[in-house]
Amino acid sequence: ILQHSYSGKPEDDNYLALSDTQGNFLLNGNFVVSMSKKEINIQGAIFEYSGSNSSVERINSTDRLEEEVVLQVLCVGNLYNPDVRYSFNIPVEEKSDLFTWDPYGPWQDCTKMCQGLHRRKITCIRKSDHMVVSDQRCDHLPLPLFVTEKCNTDCELRWHIIGKSECSSHCGQGYRSLDVHCMRYSIHKGQTVSVDDHYCGDQLKPATRESCHGDCVLTRWHYSEWSQCSRSCGGGERSRESYCINNFGHRLANRECQELPRVTTENCNEFSCPSWATSEWSECLVTCGKGTKQRQVWCHLNKDHL
After folding, report:
1. Closest Cα partner for 2 from 87, 89, 61?
2. Which runs of consecutive H residues, i.e. helices, occur in the chain?
3. Which is nearest to 15 in space by CA: 6, 61, 24, 23?
4. For the segment 18-59, what is each residue's pLDDT rounded down to a tens digit?
5. What is the value of pTM for the model shown?
6. End-to-end C-alpha distance for the chain, whole angstroms
7. SS3 at position 123
8. 57-77 mean pLDDT
9. Angle at Cα 132 formed by Cα 130 and Cα 134, nearest 5°?
10. Are the CB atoms for 15 and 31 separated by under 8 Å?
11. β-strand 116-119 against 38-42: which pairing, if any?
């Protein structure tokens, strides 16, 4: 028997008391309360009392009582509601035919997420009122067969390939990776959900790699003719148009060739341009007065051009 203090402190205004059926107090009562621990003998049964100076006041006995006792609560002071909790055991006769195994106990968990089995727990019961008791009461009896039933039948678990990589070879024999996951298929809802792979552990997992054959469709850049050089000498630049085609000559989107090198401009006519060359001036044709002198002038091409 437990009486919990409303404040959580030993000081409380509620106290436990025991009396017999004639009203004679056996523990506490008559406005007298024992604060310290004590043991009392009631018709040969020993009762242990915690004393009132405890946040949880306690009366306990493990002996068998042959007569009734009355529990009372003495309430004084502020008259807070007492919090009394109690438990007791009823002795049962030790006869083997009073108990039996009951195979129809509560259902246990399903063995699988989908398409599994579950079974009822086998319990020991008292025949008179079908009260569940300790299994020790039925240990001498043979266990009945388990009652089983299919469960989680509305779904299935199986491996599913949800994706494939590109073939490693664009032309000829190669391989590709497979993305394999355990999937839960709901039969009635029509839903598919990915679950942890261990749920498909009882099924053979498909290979995660398979052979493949490239279809030999190759791509390349196709170019137009070069344009005229922007300069006739001294370093210029020329350009050309480009577009992506396959090996069958069909034009493709340029992104199909984006990983291939492309040359659409280049330098041209990088040789030096011609320049005028002159000889030394001749002597003046007159020794005094205004005269003229001459020199030769010609167009000169650099050796790297020749």
Report:
1. 87
2. none
3. 6
4. 888 888 888 888 878 888 888 888 888 888 988 888 888 899
5. 0.40
6. 123
7. strand
8. 85
9. 135
10. no
11. unpaired
Left if phi > 0, otherwise alpha if psi is -120 to 50, otherwise beta: which for 127? alpha
**In angstroms, what is the C-alpha Rg of the chain?**
53
Q: Determine how many CB atoms are found less than 10 A away from the CB of residue 293.
A: 11
Which amino acid is residue 243, in one-letter code? Y
Tell me what the mean pLDDT of segment 6-18 comes to. Answer: 81
Q: What is the rounded CA–CA span in Å between residue 115 and residue 306? A: 91
Using CA atoms, how far residue 55 sits from 7, 112, 155, 226, in Å, is 8, 49, 55, 102
As a whole number of angstroms, the distance between CA 288 and CA 116 comes to 131
**pLDDT given at position 92:** 63
Sign of CA dihedral 92, 94, 97, 101: positive
- Tell me which residue has tokens 């968990």: 109
Q: What would the two tokens of residue 160 be?
A: 């599913």
